[in-house]
Design goal:
With 226 residues, the chain is of the alpha/beta class. The chain is 33% helix and 26% strand. The chain has a 6-stranded mixed β-sheet with strand order 6-7-8-3-9-10. Strand 7, helix 6 and strand 8 form a beta-alpha-beta unit. Helix 3 runs parallel beside helix 5 and helix 5 runs parallel beside helix 6. The structure holds adenosine-5'-triphosphate (ATP) and magnesium ion. The site of magnesium ion (MG) has 3 residues, from helix 1.
């Protein structure tokens, strides 16, 4: 089951060396239920990646409260966060971020191996689901962008994470290929049921989620506001 997220009055600034800091997230409060697929929409620079990086525990926040699974994310040590990321989270990025010197099979197997699992059948089953059985022994550079992103989706889910964070997963893909990736994610969401938090610029992509949170200049705006 997915991880529930509770966030209250979250604020984040980036410091500038020798200058004033720039606030990029303002007073964000929201809750996300286990198993929801929430889409963070907003223009470039609105703070989508910053928010996802905070949820991933990669970036610290300045003030406010963030509870994942009821645990105070701000009070965790780096080691604790690393362990939670490795065991309970999956990531999909705009530019796929596959390991270039690992085969498709090895890319997908890696997160499970890091958790001490080495289940060949599970890897092959997931590769089948993403339609890449015949590419298992290829390297990322030998695949199209859409195929690479399908590998990335399989890699993000192999260890059955409870939270999937996807930062513009269709941003580098053409419309049709992007749709295929989102349809795949829809199927796998039903099967694996993690909480998904996905950022996108695209309203078309946003429709695949169960709810949209709109960011403008670091603040949430109501869905109807432009
Ligand atoms: N490491 C950083 N140091 C300083 N400022 C940063 C840093 N990362 C992001 N910012 C600033 O924070 C703001 C939000 O950036 P962010 O990357 O979260 O936007 P985004 O919505 O993901 O944009 P895009 O759609 O282009 O990916 C921007 O003004 C950006 O310049
Ligand atoms: Mg971004």
């Amino acid at each position: 089951m997915g991880i529930p997220i509770l966030c209250k009055n979250l604020e984040k600034s980036y410091g500038k060396a020798g200058g004033p800091s720039q606030r990029v997230l303002f007073d964000l409060s929201f809750s996300i239920g286990a198993g929801e697929w929430v889409v963070i929409m907003g223009d470039s620079g609105s703070g989508k990646s910053t928010l996802l990086n905070i949820l991933a525990g990669i970036d610290p926040y300045d003030s406010g409260e963030l509870l994942l699974d009821g645990n105070d994310w701000g009070a965790m040590t780096d080691e604790e966060k690393t362990l939670i990321r490795r065991r309970q989270m999956g990531f999909v990025f705009q530019n796929y971020n596959l390991f270039p010197f690992l085969s498709v099979y090895e890319n997908v197997a890696l997160p499970a191996r890091l958790n001490g699992q080495d289940d060949r059948e599970a890897v092959h089953a997931l590769l089948k689901e993403v339609g890449l059985t015949d590419k298992a022994h290829k390297f990322p550079s030998q695949l199209s962008g859409g195929e690479q992103q399908r590998v990335a989706v399989a890699r993000a889910l192999i260890h059955r994470p409870r939270l999937l964070l996807a930062d513009e997963p269709t941003g580098a893909l053409d419309h049709l290929t992007g749709r295929k990736v989102l349809e795949l994610l829809t199927l796998l969401h039903k099967e694996f049921c993690p909480t998904i938090v996905m950022s996108t610029h695209s309203l078309d992509a946003a429709r695949y989620g169960t709810r949209i949170l709109k960011l403008r200049d670091g603040r949430f705006v109501s869905e109807n506001e432009r």
